[in-house]
Amino acid sequence: MNLVSLRIITANIERLVPYYEQITGGAVTLFSEDFAELKTRSCTLAIASTRTLALFGASDVARPSANHSVIIEFRVDDVDAEYRKLADLIGQSLVQKPTTMPWGNRSLLFRDPDGNLLNFFTKISAEALEKFDQ
Fold this sequence. Notes:
Layout: E1 5-10, H1 13-24, E2 28-32, E3 35-39, E4 44-49, E5 71-75, H2 79-90, E6 94-100, E7 105-111, E8 117-123, H3 126-132
Parallel strand pairs: 1-4, 5-8
Antiparallel strand pairs: 2-3, 3-4, 6-7, 7-8
């Protein structure tokens, strides 16, 4: 089994697509006015409007802007440089400035416009680097 995609359901796809392009520097492919994907080397982040929920049989299978348990994580080369670059954009959505975690990551936590928690992190300890590269 292989995890290949995560999907954000949003009531405002027009706001999230350019936001994710800006914070990642990657191109988001808009397949329709209701569905887009940001492809990375290891996983795809899909962004879908609430209108897509009807395709799953009901409009209440997911609620936009209601995530309180999942953190979307992006490994970056230099989390401190990313923070300096994105500080104005992140603004009040900052949860935690770059901080070294006990498990060897340096992490920046903030929220996207829908309130989804994002973690940009850099592995800094030898143990963390070794674990990730296995």
